[in-house]
Design brief:
- This protein has a three-stranded mixed β-sheet with strand order 1-3-2.
- Helix 1 packs antiparallel against helix 7, helix 2 packs parallel to helix 4 and helix 5 runs antiparallel to helix 6.
- 72% of the residues lie in helices and 5% in strands.
- A hairpin with a 4-residue loop joins strand 2 and strand 3.
- The chain is mostly helical.
- The protein has one domain.
- It binds zinc ion.
- The site of zinc ion has 4 residues, from helix 4 and helix 6.
- Zinc ion binds next to helix 4 and helix 6.
Length: 230
Amino acid sequence: MFFDPLYLLIILPGVLLALYASLKVKSSFARASAIPSQAGWTGGQVAQAILDAEGIADVQIEPVQGYLSDHYDPRAKVLRLSPDVYRGRSLAAAGVAAHEVGHAIQHAHGYGPLAVRNAVVPVASIGSSLSWVFIIIGIGMALQTLAIIGCALFTLVVIFQVVNLPVEFNASRRARQVLLVNGIVGTDEDHEIGRVLNAAAMTYVAATLTAILTLLYYLWRSGLLGGRRD
Ligand SMILES: [Zn+2]
């Protein structure tokens, strides 16, 4: 009932960028995975060294299953690193580990956008799972109020994606800085790590673009933007 080729056309720039970014992540990660770091530390050791250098003593580091499943859990104050990163001694492992520690540093320093992101996460996930139901029923039954509620719910998803951008860019910037300042990597190594982290950042830009284009499409279909044509 709601499959619209026009929707695919509208979000196409976001989809293409996401595709390009994911290829970039895979290729840059594979490339940096094949380069052993000169310091010879595992990702787990890199993460611990950065935490020590930053004076953060209450964050635990644990291995977690999965490919690129690395994340910092602010509630448990646990840094979870995937096997390749936790045990790996490559530049890719050092870069990803440092990025995740970047989030732990943001948390320890009360970095504003991270607090906003964490606050928005639960409502954004409700928004993402419920918005389209309201919009489909609202448009299908010509009940504009329902469509407006759906658009408002999806706006939460867009807010999350937008707030996520400074959080991710800042974590990568902190990561590269802290690796260089502490002599964990050299300038050439930093350049390689930058390729991986920039590619990862591009996936977040693609997700944000897709969310914004989707919201514009919803608004237009709901007759809230440029009038309805059906
Ligand atoms: Zn991140």
